[in-house]
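Listing S7. Sequence submitted for prediction.
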Amino acid sequence: MPHRSDKRDFIALMALVSDLDIEFVDGVNGSLIHPRSLPAYWKGDALPGDYGCWRAHMNVYQMMLRERIQSALVMEDDADWDVLLKAQLTEVARGTRFLQDVKGATHSPYGDNWNVISLGHSGLNNKFTSDQKYWVTPNDPTVIAPRRQRWSRKPDLSAPALGGDFTRVVHEVSRMTGLGAYGISLKGAARVLFDQSIMPNAQSIDVAVSQLCRYDHWNQAFCLGAYPMVFGHYRAIGPVDKDSDRRATNYDADVAPPPVRQRLEPESTLLVYPASINIPRFLKNEHIIPALYPKWDMLPEIDLETFVFPKGRGVFVLSTEYAGREEMQHVQQVQEPQTETTEELQTDTTKKPQVDTTKEPQIGMTEEDAASAGAAHRQDRGGATYQGELPVDQNESE
């Protein structure tokens, strides 16, 4: 939201230490949308915060169409990411290009035949009933430990080629929960805008995109995704009711808001080496980054000056290779949409976290609803093309 200068301050700091070019797109107060501009048909709850969040994403898509932006990374304004984000996205791009059989030049580094890439979700499903390709990166230290993966929606990775406690895969997505951060192509932006603004399908934007992933109306896999997620969530010190502007606009004026709990330490979820918690280290020119949970995560710390990011490989998996196929089919048939809550991890900004090893952390199980469409990071405009090998982070091996 334009009035949340506090969130923009923090995102600007994270973008600086991560060497990212960020563009802010104003969120929308749903209660101020003119009645004639509201969708003629709406599925689900029709609250001001839901309308505002939906409209803010539509505005991003409209901007992409007007300016012919070939692909963008859209983030909610509470998004957090790993200090190795550039290396992670390079590997994701290798994966999406492999899935699309990219051989030559493309307008987007992720290829040209995709719509949405789910990167900041709270769980997703793969298409385990089909023979398909995956991009597999084993021994990735930015994958959170299995005991921290406490969300409910998970893909079937029982095929031998997809195994490993610290493996990240890029694959076709059938359904997902949450839309905290995602890539979207120009073609994908046009299709979502048409589906939501022109057709009578308008609904909460995360549900809308998940439905497009599920049904593949455009004769191709509508959604690709990285699992586990690449983006997480950040929660600042202070009143917890400041986390979400979408929820704030949903309160009834005649009903007192719930009591406000204070957060005494900043929190980051779903990540191993979050940029948010490590801003002080970057400002001190430190290069040793500790893991949030060093006893559980793959590497207790990394040295940014010497670390080499692992390189993935493409594999082909037959539908008969999934050990849990019958069970997963049953789950997908009966599972209802989840309303999930978040109990997040508390961290210290000045020293390595002290871990209580007597219990497991309750990691974020859903996206935090935010009114702002967040920061749109432009990947490419109309004229540029990418040829041959992808841009590689300076710490990544060839």
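Caption to Listing S7: primary sequence and predicted structure tokens for the chain studied. The helical segments are 5-18, 48-67, 85-99, 186-198, 205-215, 245-248, 279-283, 325-334. Residues 308 and 396 are 5 Å apart (CA to CA).
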